[in-house]
Structures
1.
Amino acid sequence: MRWLAISRTTVLVLITVQAGAAQAAGDATRGADIFRQNCAMCHSPEPGQNLVGPSLFSVVGRAAASIASFSYSSAMKSSGIVWTADQLKAYLKAPRKYVPGVKMMFPGLTDEQDRENVVAFLATLRNAAGGGADATTQAKASRSD
Ligand code: HEC
């Protein structure tokens, strides 16, 4: 039975490490509420669904203005941003100051913890295999226009 005790300890260590990482990156469950209250009227979390704003499926890690079926402002197209967690937090603090001329009519999230949490939620919007961003890129590459 000794092996059982060892494997239990291992599992506990893994859980502790994961909980630590989740905390540092914000609380995705709270982030989902913030998303519903502040973003969902303009953004869908589903792939390929654009509303007033582009789908935010697999937004973390993708280049700004890379959804081919969405008509972005020239400000967003020429921003050169790649949506890392840090870039998202900076943008969401004051979108129209961070990227002047952007057509996202949202004043920003003033609370730093809210920004952490909503970005943690955005990071969950991807395929289980983590292939969301790739799928977007491939779809874009295969379009002829
Ligand atoms: C009033 C509508 C509206 C609200 C509310 C809104 N957005 Fe947007 N968002 C837009 C529009 C429109 C764009 C496209 C901007 C452009 O092209 O200039 C955009 C762009 C973005 C982008 C860049 C996407 C890309 O593909 O490059 C991100 C990220 C984003 N929004 C996140 C959020 C988050 C997170 C929230 C909530 C905290 C939010 N937005 C709230 C309308 C909105």
2.
Amino acid sequence: MPGGEDIIGSHAACSPHRPVGVNMRRAKREFVRVCTISDVPDEGAISVVVDDLPIAIVRSQGRLYAIEDVCSHENVALSEGDVEDGTIECWLHGSRFDLATGRAIGPPATRPVPVYPIKVEDDDVYVAVPRRVRT
Ligand code: FES
């Protein structure tokens, strides 16, 4: 987007992996640079870590998405799965997740995976995740 920022995606339901002792009511979001746009393959994903939170940066059909890089069924990386038509498939048991909403659209996973706001400025990709405030 010329001269501005392009915000893509939104965040979904709370994480099943929320650490004990984190007060999410006080959480704030800040965009953090995670990679360049050329780092992300077409119809593919890379894994980055922001504040100890693994995030899959995914490109599908020319759009970028940020989704937590942990399947909601078991603790495996979604970024290692196949990307197709706005979805990512978990490599272990084959559940598919909608990249825009995080919704599980195929069993055995039934719970969504959190998705996060993502934007591109020039060639840099930024993701906003809750800043965790320990209490
Ligand atoms: S671990 Fe992802 S579907 Fe089972």
